[in-house]
Give the backbone structure.
Amino acid sequence: MAESLSPSWPQVAVAILEQDGKFLMQLRDDNPEILYPGHWCFFGGHLEPGESAAIAVQRELLEEIGYCPTHLELWRREEDTHLTRHLYYGKLDVSLERLILGEGMDMALVSPTEIRQGSCYSTKIQEWRPLGKPHQQMLCELIDQLNTLGAP
């Protein structure tokens, strides 16, 4: 799928990384100045000026967890009235202990059960926290797709 740039509104590139049927998520800081404070979300972020989504997702992963899989596939691209999301899917082929959390309060491999429930327990802060609603919805759709078709 070609990646066209839409300069009229912000663009983000995020990674959905899967390992043994669980999905890597970041617990965002409790900062009211950011989107989804205190929620479980995907790793990724905004595209820099002139940057492609493919390069942005790699850069963001290296900044946020010190790791980027060798293969990421564009799963889908979504546009709404204020944002374009480039969603990449890949396998997490290293242990969670090898990742270096550079942003957020915690990270975890979240099970499909927790995703459908809409919350995950953070061992670092010892609290249950919600998933961001769009993140939960996208993961449920991806899980359904993986269950019926295999990898995207």
The chain has three helices and nine strands. The CA atoms of residues 25 and 42 lie 5 Å apart. Confidence is low (pLDDT under 50) at residues 1-6.
